[in-house]
Amino acid sequence: MSHGLPSQPAESFKARRRALASRLGSERAALVFSGVARPRNYPDNIYPFRPDSHFLYLTGAWIERAAILVDGDKDVLFMPPADPGDLIWHGPTPGWAEFKAGCGVDEIRDIAELEGYVRERGANTLATLPACDAVTRYGQGSMLGRSWAAPGTGVDLDAADGALADAMIGLRLIHDASALEMLRGAAAATVEAHLAGMAATRPGLRESDVRAAMERPILARDMSTAYGSIVTVHGEILHSHSYDHRVEDGDLLLADVGADNGGWAGDVTRTWPANGKFSPTQRTMYELVLASQEAAIAMLRPGVRYRDVHLAAGRVIAQGLVDEGILRGDVDNLMERGAQGLFFVHGLGHVIGLDVHDMEDLGDRAGYAPGRTRASQFGLCFLRLDRDLEAGMAVTIEPGFYQIPALLAEGSELTAPFDADGTLDRAALAKFADVRGIRIEDDVLITAEGSEVLTAAAPKQPEAVEALVGTAAGASA
Amino acid sequence: MSHGLPSQPAESFKARRRALASRLGSERAALVFSGVARPRNYPDNIYPFRPDSHFLYLTGAWIERAAILVDGDKDVLFMPPADPGDLIWHGPTPGWAEFKAGCGVDEIRDIAELEGYVRERGANTLATLPACDAVTRYGQGSMLGRSWAAPGTGVDLDAADGALADAMIGLRLIHDASALEMLRGAAAATVEAHLAGMAATRPGLRESDVRAAMERPILARDMSTAYGSIVTVHGEILHSHSYDHRVEDGDLLLADVGADNGGWAGDVTRTWPANGKFSPTQRTMYELVLASQEAAIAMLRPGVRYRDVHLAAGRVIAQGLVDEGILRGDVDNLMERGAQGLFFVHGLGHVIGLDVHDMEDLGDRAGYAPGRTRASQFGLCFLRLDRDLEAGMAVTIEPGFYQIPALLAEGSELTAPFDADGTLDRAALAKFADVRGIRIEDDVLITAEGSEVLTAAAPKQPEAVEALVGTAAGASA
Ligand SMILES: [Mn+2]
Ligand SMILES: [Mn+2]
After folding, report:
1. Same domain, B132 and B181
2. Which residues form the Aminopeptidase P N-terminal domain (chains A, B) (predicted)?
3. Is B183 exposed, middle or buried (0-12, 13-18, 19+ CB in 10 A)?
4. How far is CA A72 from the centre of its chain?
5. B284 and B386 housed in the same domain
6. CB atoms < 10 A from the CB of B461, how many?
7. Sign of the CA dihedral B74, B78, B79, B82?
8. Which value does ipTM take for this structure?
9. What is the reported pTM?
10. How far is B134 from chain A (nearest CA, A)?
């Protein structure tokens, strides 16, 4: 989509804006910007534009250089007027009247009037949020007489802006019916991508062939990917974004691919054997990760602290590694020392919504409940979510097992204490040399009764996965 | 690619840097930045990073936050040091020694030293170019004590920076052997996309299905698209970037899709009948556009002014419209009045290289020879290239015929004079209602003898196109 009306009823956006106004109180109006497209290499050649997620949440409108003002009972959408040249280059596009109806706002004004409006109303009566990109942030900041800390380096907001951030977080954490409809659409396309990927895989192909097979059904549904796909035979490279390795007989292929459905994210990881058959060692580790994931999902229900789910999933991994003789010792003690974090190095998951890591533009403010902060222990420090679950939240559950050479090298800082006292049995570990990296990830909705796996249709039982690999007609090298 | 060494020999980049130094003279050093990745919605979720094209041209290195300094005989690459955390998240990546050898530079320094280096050397001894994105431009400007006009609003450079721009333009306009190798790779993948698109097309699909089929082979080669694909049954919407129309029996499908091969662009347009058979009216107009394109290509050789090729291609269209009774009058006179521009509304093409519109980050400085400027006449004013051709240049040749409702509406400003004196025969035009838009585009290298069509393997003769449509096994709705 490049320029468009909301795909859902105006009422859903109106309801969100009223809920925001009531959370924010009548003292200040909320002003949320949509952002601008960014060039790849010159101004006319842009990356696909994606509006800011807060703006999308409140309007559903896919437009650049716009802002929504939520002022008590009144909503004003500021946007550019139609350019007559657009009719030649872009064809007929919806006009102001259609956006007024489609977004359910009271008034539409020219975005050029926003600066005067802000001056007149008094910038300090407006709460707003920094854009995720520095260009827009700089422009917003200079208009509003503010400076914001850069995202990614911690987020430091004025009190008013902080109140808006907290109100948005409160709303967006608990998905309404319209949000759920979009998430289900993203989940369906994401599942289809994984089915296509398994079917297309055969030794002899390159990772890029499998990636192309997976992204095709997403594009065919007129969606995009929600993040840079990971499709690799080196699953131990956690943020691998190259696709040039040959897929060899005996490799595991790890694919972390998700669809963006009108701005809403899917996020699924599956790991499958390139030749359609797990080796005994691969199967052992795969079943361990799967058991960890299933145990975690079984715990999900309102009131449960996500950090406890993370630790329980890690405990299953720790116990499994003890059972295989890779770790020695008492599981409680191993967990305390973070031994499982040598192999399950990242957090169990994150909230998911419009953003794949939802609201990460606000740093940990969305992922961590007030008063909670990141732990310092390796492994646990990477956990992105530490809240008590509530019905309507959506989270990912994505444990993994990885052998990262840099981490596990003999003499490495991290493993030294475990080598020193014999906790780590490297001979036992060496038997699993054909398991570089496994991750199994689903998107899960918290319900009043427990949970619902939104992406359950992507096979993950080992037999089901094996049965699918290489079944596509075009799965040739 | 996300982080990588040059894919071509160091010597080719070294030769370019020496040629740049010799063009620029010894007075000033050239400093060219690589740029930074930009977030989609939060800092960790970025658009695929693409280095600045000038930087890529001089180094071949695919790295963020880097700069190349070309100082007479000496080349220094400034880049970030390896982050130990990268080993965990990104796996082993090439280090400084490998970039030193791969890029053939004399020295590598920490990018953090650049600011001190600039201070010490004196900013006014460095020529540099504004980045295409405002974030990076702002950072560069403040470091160098400069302000640049925004790209897209005309480019206003200091004398020294202008000299660097002209030196880069002089080099990049004439493709060397390494450049040609990359362009040929881009062309091959682009051709494959069009073959796949034709084969996958059948009435009942959506435009997005065809787009997905076309982009798959590009992704499978571990490439990306060079620009936002246009795949539409509304070819008259020149910059259409939506893909949600149903492909109907009787529609023409226009696809303008190109591959990016390690930063180098392909750019091809084909138009084919959705049902595999041009209607008589579609075939007439298709053959007219093809005749225009072939006439233009036949003219290409060193010394020829591209604007004259544009006008000759327009003349073929004008004559054809007279033959069909759509335009009445003397062709010379019609051309003078720009009558053909009602239907062939854009320019014949542009230079192509690293950027699909090569060096458009420098405005018209690359496309227009010194002293030449845009015409004011509708149609001609959109021409992006007005230089005398030289061997080694690569250009696109892309005439078209479009019925744009907003332009052709009775009483529209543009058509009124042609309606008033009976030049435009709307009854004759009405017979071609099933031809909304046709464009045929190839990438052509200027050679000493004439020209070579780099993308000739994409079928364009009507019979060849018809024979391919709908032949893919998976071309079902
Ligand atoms: Mn995830
Ligand atoms: Mn073109």
Report:
1. no
2. 8-137
3. buried
4. 31
5. yes
6. 11
7. positive
8. 0.95
9. 0.96
10. 6
